[in-house]
Amino acid sequence: MYPSTPTHHSPAYSKVKIFLTDNSIPTFYLPPALPIVNTLGQNYNFSQTAITLINVQKTSILIDTPPTYNSSTLLANWLDVKLGPKPLTHIYITHGHGDHFFGLPVLIKRFPGVEVIATADTVAHVQDQLVPGTTTPVDSWTAWFPDQLPP
Asked: Per the CATH hierarchy, to which homologous superfamily does domain 17-144 belong?
């Protein structure tokens, strides 16, 4: 059902493969679409990132986060049900677009001790996204989702 070797060229997949060698099946969470605020008076929805939870033995790894406070809170509630008393041990951020990391403050607060991991390139991309005037900076995300991004 799932390939035993990564099919994507990202070095991150080689790390994930290690956790899947016990034949566990990852669980997926798809947050609901978010309405985008725009000045054109048109209705747009933003399809959020599908979130993956890899839950094996003593390790539970969440791949990416939703962008908004409410979506991240809903995800945290879902994680409480899926994990039970087991802690969320890691959050892996795949790349630096805001819709993959803006939810970190909510999840870090909800799951104390969780370790956030990312490649050096991803960390640099995240930092770039937080500077106004860059490719898709935080001010664009704030305009699309006013008062919805975690602090």
From this structure: Ribonuclease Z/Hydroxyacylglutathione hydrolase-like (3.60.15.10)
**Contact residues for 150 (Cβ-Cβ < 8 A; gap 6+):** 68, 69, 72, 102, 103, 104, 105, 106
Helices of type H across 22-68: none
Residue 100: exposure state from Cβ atoms within 10 A (0-12, 13-18, ≥19): buried
Strand partners, 27: 53
Give the domain ranges of the chain.
17-144
Q: Please, are residues 90 and 59 in contact by the beta-carbon 8 Å criterion?
A: yes
- Residue range 48-105, pLDDT digits in tens: 778 889 988 888 999 999 998 999 999 999 999 999 999 999 999 999 988 999 999 9
Least confident of 9-23, 30-44, 121-135, 136-150: 9-23
pTM above 0.90, yes or no: no
Sort 87 into a burial class: Cβ within 10 Å, 0-12 / 13-18 / 19+.
middle
